[in-house]
Amino acid sequence: MRFSRFSARFSFLTAAALIGFACGNTTEEPTTTTEAEVADTVSPTTTSAPVSTTTARETTSEVVSDATNSFAGVVDIGGRGLYLRCAGSGSPTVIMEGGDEDTSSSYGFAVADIAAVTRTCVYDRANLGQSDPAEGPRGLSELVGDLEALLDSADVEGPYVLVGTSGGGYITAGYAFAHPDEVAGMVFVETPSPFIDPPPEIVELTAWDHPSNVENRDYLQVEKDAWAARTEIGDIPVTVISNDYGPDAEPGARTNVEDQKGWLVLSPSAKQIVVTTGHAVEEADPQLVIDAILDVVLPLTD
After folding, report:
1. CB atoms < 10 A from the CB of 257, how many?
2. How confident is the model at residue 285 (pLDDT cuts 50, 70, 90)?
3. What does the H/E/C string look like for 43-87?
4. pTM surpassing 0.70?
5. Which of 34, 75, 110, 253 has the most CB atoms less than 10 A away?
6. Angle at 93 between CA 280 and CA 150, to 5 degrees
7. Are the C-beta atoms of residues 198 and 1 closer than 8 Å to each other?
């Protein structure tokens, strides 16, 4: 069962509300046909990652195919390794950032469709999947720094279209603020505004050193820092997908659509898509998410 502070955003009367509603599935996703097809056609990266690798990592890194322009493997970012998987060719490169505790497999529904159009990459953050552990607290600078190091070490060329699901949107936003000239477009999939005055039980359960916090991530501070850094990064396509919880929702949820308009300041061309799927848009309507990404990417392709 995954940890997510988003489970408590709109229902925090009990501590149990935090557990079970994740940014991705609440159970580990099985390998889909799409993921298997990509895994069957990947080639390894050159890596000097620590020796303490898992069997799954070693197996993935040994799969080779030069004909597909795809690869998967653990990339050394300077003493630690992060698992990266890329497929397709062309520009811009789409970087897809999963939600809280979500691994690269959370985008299994989208990789093949996006890679058919342009270069597409997903990765496991530190402490997740096939990537190495990292000590906490993990703030926005650490999370963005890992992405910076990964793209540089793996020679993943920009410009980038950054896709962030739920809590992953704060990381893509942080990267965009730090490197506006490298970002050609963005898609936010249900990335809420920060908590305002969270109750003590939420503060405790989202603390970086709480036993349920697998990522060692300072969740509340990360979202505050990303939100506070909002600024226009250029006249680029930005799509914000927001769920409308309706007038009968918990008070904090009723303004979700309006609150997420705060991301529109990133670009004068930004737009919002309102859905009624619930928080996990990619599970309820994966095609909508794929189409939103393609709507940003296609006008930018070579």
Report:
1. 16
2. very high
3. ECCCCCCCCCCCHHHHHHHHCCCCCCCCEEEEEECCCCEEEEEEE
4. yes
5. 75
6. 85
7. no
d(CA 142, CA 71) in angstroms, rounded, equals: 25
Rounded distance between C-alpha atoms, residue 287 and residue 231, angstroms: 30
Mean pLDDT of 5-28: 40
Residue 211: Cβ within 10 Å count: 8
Mean pLDDT rounded to a whole number for the chain: 83
* Token pair in block for residue 220: 């509340």
Cα distances from 18 to residues 85, 118, 176, 202, in angstroms, run 30, 37, 29, 8
Identify the CATH class of 6-30+82-300.
alpha beta
Place of tokens 């919002």: 272
Listed in order, strand segments (DSSP E) in the chain are 71-76, 81-87, 93-97, 120-123, 160-165, 183-189, 238-243, 271-275
Cα within 13 Å of Cα(6), Cβ side? 25
Contact criterion met (CB below 8 Å) for 270 and 292: no
Domain residues of the chain, as ranges?
6-30+82-300
Give Cα 155 distance to the centre of its chain: 20
Q: Does residue 50 have a cis peptide bond before it, meaning omega lies within 30 degrees of 0?
A: no
